[in-house]
Amino acid sequence: MNINPGQDKPIFIQIAEGIEDGILTGAFPEESQIPSITEFSVNYKINPATALKGINLLVDENIIYKKRGVGMFVAEGAVQKLRKKRQDQFYTNYISSLIDEARRLGISSEDVIAMIERGFSK
């Protein structure tokens, strides 16, 4: 996980997205423990409150859960929830604007699909 304080994105969001990436890649399997808030704050030289804020975003989404006195764990079904969330974000952030630009340029859906397929074949 890379934390970049110079990035426009807040550090707590970077922490949450880094954990999400770890879950999606299998670094943090479902029902496994994730690093503690202290570990995050020490390893990335950030305030523990910032690490907690990032982790709490995932707790609120039921991606991770707390076991009192033990730590934080990846919830069952977290991978599926995250894939759905990221697919929705992908559509909103990329596909929607791609379609808008294609319409402005008069590019047909068939041509857009052909362009995408060309990109995948590289």
Automatic annotation (TrEMBL):
Family annotation (CDD domains):
WHTH_GntR (cd07377)
Q: Where is the HTH gntR-type domain positioned along the sequence?
A: 9-77
Q: Which Pfam families match?
A: GntR
The regions listed as transmembrane in this protein's record are none
Q: Name one GO molecular function term.
A: DNA binding
Which residues, by range, are in coiled-coil regions? Answer: none
Its domain of life reads Bacteria
Q: Which UniProt keywords apply?
A: DNA-binding, Transcription, Transcription regulation
Task: Supply the name of the protein.
Answer: GntR family transcriptional regulator
Lineage, opening ranks: Bacteria, Bacillati, Bacillota, Clostridia, Lachnospirales
